[in-house]
Amino acid sequence: MGIETELPNFAVSQPYVDFIVNAPYATVLEWLSKASIGLSTMQDEHFGINIVEYMAAGVIPVTHASGGPLKDIVVPVDGKPSGFHARTPAEFADALKKVLSLSGEEELEMRRRARQWAVQRFSEEEFEKGWDSCKWDRYLP
Residue 15's domain spans which residues? Predict the structure, then answer.
């Protein structure tokens, strides 16, 4: 039982919503390749790998203005936004409207910044550098 059972309680009809549960990675990549906006509404999310995946795919993130998405993930790149934050339903609606109202050039530039940040900051190479910098191997016998 999940949110899909609650759909009749919302002003959204089934033809406009797809629930793809436990999708294979290839399916996730296919959907990301067609997406414009990545929506994450979880409050105080500690990290949010889904948001990094959105950004790495060039999808513009709209996230809750708290936790990791606010502090570490959806941050300015070269002084310009890489996505949007919101707290209330009205703010989320406004952020979605802003994304959908971007000019083609503005949208492309934001997608590039989001992708650049995700790939640069959260790559395997960056993870290894951070891991190695904490000198974890000094605890080995």
Answer: 3-139
Alpha-helical runs (H) found in the chain: 25-34, 49-56, 67-68, 89-101, 104-121, 124-133
Q: What confidence tens digit (pLDDT) does each residue in 37-81 have?
A: 999 999 999 888 999 999 999 999 999 999 999 999 999 999 999
Written as six digits, the tokens of 106 are 């503005």
Number of Cβ within 10 Å of residue 71's Cβ equals: 9
Residue in the block written with tokens 């000019």: 103
The CATH number given to whatever domain includes residue 88 is 3.40.50.2000
Contacts of 13 (CB under 8 A, 6+ apart): none
DSSP string, 106-140: HHHHHHHHHHHHHHHHSSHHHHHHHHHHTTGGGG-
Q: Residues with Cβ < 8 Å from 129, sequence gap 6 or more?
A: none
Total domain count for the chain? Answer: 1
Residue 85, beta-bridge partner list: 63
- pTM value is 0.82
The dihedral over CA atoms of 6, 9, 12, 13, expressed in degrees to the nearest 10, equals 80
